[in-house]
Every structure is written in C-alpha cells, then in structure tokens.
Design goal:
globular, alpha/beta, single chain, 8-stranded mixed beta sheet
C-alpha cells in the first residue's frame, strides 16, 4: 500500500481518546485499536503486578471507602545509585495493554537506570472502585474524573517512596500518550513536587471549548488522505452524496446492500445514516479510491473494496456486518461518561475543508444525549478552568510531542512556550508513535524525537541530583 498509507494506518490504529460527539460524528472520533490488532506486544516485557489501597474520594472527608488500584513494576535495569523512576500515567484502558505497547520506556530503561511503573487509571482494567457496580449509574461514576486520577497517582508515588528502599530520593518522570499524555502534563502542573518533568505524547490539551477550531481534527484527517494518493479524499467526499442519490428508492437500497455485501440489508433512511457512520469510522483504504470521474455505482463498488480490506482482512467473511466497528472492543463505558462530564471536546465538519458530511458542533444536543445516557450534564469549560487552557507558561519541564500525521495534533502544543515547556513535532509521525518501541520501519524523524526526549529527561535527572547534593 506504500509507506505513507502504512503510516496513516498507524496514525489511526493506535490507543487513544474515544470521544462521543453528535451521532453522525460519533464514529469518526474514536481512535482506539480493536484487540484483534493488539494481540502482540511491541516488546518482550517482564513486570510484577501490585495493588494499592486508594480512597474512592480524595477531595471529601465523609466517604472513607477505598478500592484497589492496580500497578505494574519492572526494575531489571533500575539502579539505586543515580537511577530514576519512569511513571506511566495510565489512560482509558487496561494497564497491561499500555505496558506492553509503550516500548519506548523499556528501550530507555537501561540508559536511564530506570524503574518502570505503570499505574492503572481508576474505573479501567481491574481498578474498579465499586467492582461490578462501578458503571451502574452516575452516583457510582461520580468519582471518575481526571482530578481523582491524578490524586491516585500522587498517593501511589508517595507509597512507592515509602515502601521501596532507594526510591525515596530518586527523580520520578511522568510519561503518557493521548489522554495519558494529557494526564502526564497535568500531573506535572498540579503536582510538580512529585515528578521532575513529564513527557506528554500526542496530548490534545487544547481540544476544549474554542481554544482550537472544532473542525481541526477532521481537516488533518483529510490532509493525511490527500497525501496518501490522488483522488482519495475527493472520492470519499463524493461518496456521501452518491449514497444519498442511490438510496432515494427501494431499488437503490437493494443495490447498495448487495454492492457492499452487507449482512443486513438497508431498509430506510436511518439504516443509511448508520451505514455512513460505519464507513466513516473505517478510515477506508486509499488504494481503491485513486480513479476520478467515476459513476456513483463505480465509486461505491470501490468503497466496498476498501471496506473489505479492513473488515475482511482474513478473506473468510461472507458479508460485512455494520455492527462490527473498529472500536467495538475498546469502546469503554468509562470514557463515554468522562466525555459527558469534563472531557468535552467539540468536533465539527463542513464538507469543504474536510472529506466528511457537514455537521455542526451542537452543545445542547450533545448535552441532551449525555443526560439521556448518564443523567449528567457536561461542563465544557471546567478543564480549562482546572488546567489553564493556553495559560500554562508558569509551569516547567514538560515535553509535548506530536506527529504531523496525527489528527489529535490539532489540539496539541506544537510550538515551544518557554525554554522548559517544549514542543517536538515529528514529520511522518503517527499518534504517539514515539512511545512505541524502536522499529525497523520507524521514520528517522521519530528516532530523532526519541533521542531528544531522552536528552531532556537526562537533564532533569542531572538537575535533580545536583539539587540533592547542594541541599545536603
């Protein structure tokens, strides 16, 4: 398919944010990778599993209930003299998955004499505050916030310093990707005494309110598809009207159902909208969409070929099932709730700067959907009130890395703010590709980015020990 197309697939097939948006855009915004693609870890990992008793509510004094937070430790390369501790701020998923797919930390552990710690985010994996009842209703979910998660990380670091001989006087560095990258940055901002710095990879900390345009994500997606070959984004844009024209009558519905080999035939307008949402989520492969001046039927037959690569990669499926999506296996209830409360990220499309059908961002409709699902109303301005939006220049020692193929980079920090709040932009870089293990297919730009990240971390470690010597 060509190197760029492979990189584009990497850009979308990476763990990341799953953000509910208006129904027609809902499928477009979830960048999780289904488990069928993630069965093999990127590196051979060896770790021990631990549990720490955390308060369910760190900010109130009435609720004394606790839960067990899971975390992983790998200390094969750790040195008590002059070592460091790399602390992964777990995001919306099982921590073992993130541990196995964050090869960068394993690759640099020996060089940094580092212990690796992977902390699981509350309400994900096995770290469930109310066990099987954790997702029962909004009363049980009330403690699922980024603030509570950051407090968990702070308490866990205190615990590690108390209980692991040699850890007390060592520098901790926070690392994370996507939502985990946002948490790493926010952790350094809110708990600067806990970590000497943070690597926030592909962290869209500005994808809130009106800090960046709501259409920036889809615009970058479209630019990526344009780069992958001639006519690709244009054909995808044309396909929506082609579907509309062909499905105005029953004959067209039947033809399209057969042409796309759908397991369930299209019967009405609602089915057609479901089809378009499903196609949008697939990020169709461009190799079948290079031709121009196609008729509606020829275009949609090519769309089928693209869909077939994605959903029938084994060649064994007799039909394509619209209920199977690229995100079904990781479509977490927890993130849906978070997006309906504080993690409100506006998305929109206009069909001009992007290859999708036009859809406005409608906060009221979004809020109504959230209330219907969870019984809660979102607070779209809370994250900027809590973490500062663009007013973060008083903070220090945070690396913001972004790949220019990554649509989330539109909400990320891509220019230096100060000498210690630095941006690393990675040409040909996918969604936090720099956190993956070194790979023979990595672009040179990713290798250089990782090298620069290690250089900054080494400086933080040196500064920590210099201060320690001066203090004593």
């Amino acid at each position: 398919m060509g190197r760029l197309v492979l990189l584009l697939l990497l850009a979308f097939l990476m763990p990341g944010l799953a953000i509910p948006v208006p129904p027609a855009l809902k499928a477009l915004s979830n960048l999780h990778l289904s488990t069928s693609f993630t069965s093999r870890p990127s590196v051979v990992t060896k770790y021990s599993i631990h549990y720490f008793e955390q308060k369910i509510d760190h900010f109130g004094f009435k609720n004394e209930k606790t839960f067990k937070q899971r975390y992983l430790i790998a200390d094969q390369h750790w040195r008590k003299e002059g070592g460091s501790i790399l602390f992964y701020t777990g995001n919306e998923g099982d921590i073992i998955w993130f541990c196995n797919n964050t090869g960068f930390m394993w690759d640099v552990a020996e060089e940094l004499k580092a212990m690796l710690v992977f902390a699981e985010h509350r309400y994900y994996g096995q770290s469930l505050p109310f066990g099987a009842d954790s997702f029962q209703d909004s009363r049980h979910l009330n403690f699922l916030t980024s603030e509570q998660a950051l407090a968990d990380f702070a308490e866990l670091i205190k615990h590690l310093k108390r209980t692991i001989p040699g850890a007390e006087n060592q520098p901790f560095i926070a690392l994370g990707g996507s939502y985990g990258g946002m948490l790493a940055a926010w952790f350094r901002m809110k708990y600067p005494h806990m970590v000497v710095g943070a690597l926030a990879a592909s962290a869209p900390i500005w994808q809130f309110e009106d800090i960046v345009p709501c259409g920036v994500f889809m615009k970058i997606v479209t630019t990526d598809f344009k780069r992958s070959g001639p006519n690709c984004s244009e054909n995808i844009r044309s396909s929506w009207d082609a579907i509309n024209r062909l499905t105005r009558n029953g004959t067209g519905l039947d033809w399209l159902s057969e042409a796309l080999h759908l397991c369930t035939p299209l019967k009405n307008a609602q089915d057609v909208q479901h089809l378009k949402d499903w196609i949008s989520e697939t990020w169709v492969v461009c190799q079948y969409l290079k031709n121009s001046n196609l008729s509606d039927r020829e275009l949609l037959q090519n769309i089928f070929q693209a869909l077939n690569v994605y959903y029938n990669y084994s060649g064994q499926a007799r039909c394509l099932n619209m209920s199977e999506t690229s995100t079904s296996s990781l479509g977490s209830l927890g993130w849906s709730y978070q997006a309906c409360t504080e993690m409100v990220m506006p998305f929109c499309t206009n069909g001009i700067d992007d290859m999708f059908e036009p859809h406005l961002w409608d906060l009221k409709a979004f809020s109504d959907d959230c209330f219907k699902q969870w019984g809660v109303k979102p607070r779209p301005s809370w994250i900027t009130s809590m973490y500062g939006g663009k007013n973060i220049s008083s903070h220090t020692n945070i690396i913001f890395s972004n790949g220019d193929l990554d649509p989330w980079s539109g909400g990320g920090v891509t220019k230096n703010i100060t000498n210690t709040l630095v941006a690393i932009v990675i040409p040909e870089g996918a969604h936090h590709l720099d956190l993956r293990a070194n790979n023979a297919f990595d672009p040179m730009t990713v290798l250089l980015a990782r090298s620069l990240e290690v250089k900054y971390m080494k400086q933080w470690i040196r500064d920590f020990y210099a201060y320690l010597r001066k203090k004593h």
